């Protein structure tokens, strides 16, 4: 089941943080870096964030999280993480489908590391098309993908 998470609640923020840490450690290893900016995010940062968090709940546990920002019909997917205990169960795809179907937007955008092929393939499966590649100051080559609303 997917539901909106109240990240201002310390316990919920801690659950989000735990999923982020576990998932981003795997992603950092995939990318081949120890200096991975998402791993430096604090519980307080999550708790104070004005973004929206949706969680995939499995066995009363937060198994996956998608974080989004909506601004003027523009949907930004800021993060999509799945606890490694729940990898390869379709959770990430269900979270992406959920926001694309339930949130009214004109364009959705997401960024990930160029070497994160599983994430890129997931987004492409949902209609996202690559439109930009660059290397930010932290040195991890990135790709941006977008999809237009069909509504």
Automatic annotation (TrEMBL):
A Pfam match: Acetyltransf_1
Residue ranges occupied by any N-acetyltransferase domain in the UniProt entry: 1-146
Name used for this protein in its record: GNAT family N-acetyltransferase
Upper taxonomic lineage: Bacteria, Pseudomonadati, Pseudomonadota, Gammaproteobacteria, Alteromonadales
